Amino acid sequence: MQDFSFYNPTRIEFGAGKIASLSQLVPTNAKVLVLYGGESAKRNGTLDEVKHALGDRQVQLFGGIEPNPSFETLMEAVAIVREQDIEFLLAVGGGSVIDGTKFVAAAALHQGDAWDILLTGGQHIDAALPFGSVLTLPATGSEMNKGSVITRKSLQAKLPFMSELVFPQFSILDPVKTYTLPTRQIANGVVDAFMHVIEQYLTYPADAPVQDRFAEGLLQTLTEIGPKALANPEDYQTRASLMWTATLALNGLIGAGVPQDWATHMLGHELTALHGLDHAQTLAVILPEMLRQRKQAKLGKLVQYAERVWNIHEGSDDEKAEAAIERTRDFFESVGVKTRLSDYDLGAEHIDAIIDSLTQHGMTKLGEHGDITPEHCRQILLASL
Ligand code: NZQ
Ligand code: ZN
Fold first, then answer.
1. How far apart are CA 278 and CA 78, in angstroms?
2. Which residues surround ligand 2, an ion (CB under 5 A)?
3. Ligand 1 contacts CB of residue 238 (under 6 A)
4. SS3 content of the chain, % helix, strand, coil (to 5)
5. Could you say which architecture CATH assigns to the domain 11-177?
């Protein structure tokens, strides 16, 4: 096992009706800005429930944070925070709203150009406003981690940042709030959570048996409950499992003490920035060919993954790895997330620009060994057509 430092200060309030606990969790005297996305939180009553729980606190609303939250929109929220002396932020939504709120929390107290937060990956953040979240979409784990991904539309750039100062103080996870999610978003959530586990598990053996077993448990849970969550939107227990699994997939626990990959995510960000694919769609396209391209380097873990997650016990190591890659592709397709670039109307003619952008963003040494180059990524995209 590798040495590690594990820190996670986020309180989780989990269960039906838990939005009411905002009345205790949000400071009573603070000026609060509630940030949300499009219309979903209004339409399904979540926003009203939140306002009710906040009682007579001084509350303002900021709506319109888009999926793949944009720097441009978020800077409008930063201006309001500064003008109105907002002291506490509350995100109500999915990963995009929570990521956006993390950025606003840091940018509001940042001296100089706020885009530098992204250009430096969050390394120089020395203060951020406190905030909490009400999660409405199980997928990203943003509700219990220190990461955020922001898009600057004018530059077609989607970049991540991290800072311990942007852990939410608390997150409310009410599985009932996920009942109104469209099928596509549930499928995206299953794939994204699955991929978060894969990025922290499918590397090389690191003598970390408990991390491996946690990861395998999360992957098996997702293969089991993913189809059920799609088939029965109001099955509380299934939605509860999905919500908690997605949180555990990226709250730091399974990644402590093990090598991590993240190449599929970094290449995926370019596909979203340039062509607008949903985050999970990019991952479903890239992973199968990424694994094939990295088969030798990942063989030990691929065989373990084949045996323990997919119960593949026949054949040579190479055959087991191949079978596991195809089972993974089939799983993504079975929940309705397409796995070929051509499914999203992208062809060979788009690949040069994607690789240029990846290179421009400095993503030239990816993967757990830092040896995945833009040229490898080009081969992966060609194989994913
Ligand atoms: O905008 P509204 O109207 O709220 O609709 C949203 C949005 O259109 C809708 N939605 C959310 N909750 C709903 C609902 N519709 C009906 N009922 C509900 N209860 O769902 C749509 C997608 O929402 P979004 O927040 O964009 O999805 P997700 O949670 O998948 O977040 C994706 C973003 O998170 C980033 C991604 O890159 C992407 O920008 N990620 C963040 C990570 C992190 N912070 O650790 C890690 C991930 O790898 C990921 O990169
Ligand atoms: Zn992701």
1. 26
2. 192
3. no
4. 55, 10, 35
5. 3-Layer(aba) Sandwich (3.40)
pLDDT tens digits for 274-330?
Answer: 999 999 999 999 999 999 999 999 999 999 999 999 999 999 999 999 999 999 999
Within 10 angstroms of residue 314's Cβ, the number of other Cβ atoms is 8
pTM score above 0.90: yes
Place of tokens 């269960």: 15
CATH ID of 183-383, from 3.30.830.10, 1.20.1090.10, 1.20.1300.10, 2.170.270.10: 1.20.1090.10
**Residue whose CA lies nearest to ligand 1 atom number 26:** 67
Q: What is the rounded distance in angstroms from the CA atom of residue 32 to the CA atom of residue 224?
A: 40
Any idea which residue has 């319109």 for tokens?
Answer: 64
Q: What is the pLDDT of residues 167-188, one digit of tens each?
A: 999 999 999 999 999 999 999 9
Q: 315 C-alpha vs ligand 1 centroid, how far in Å?
A: 40
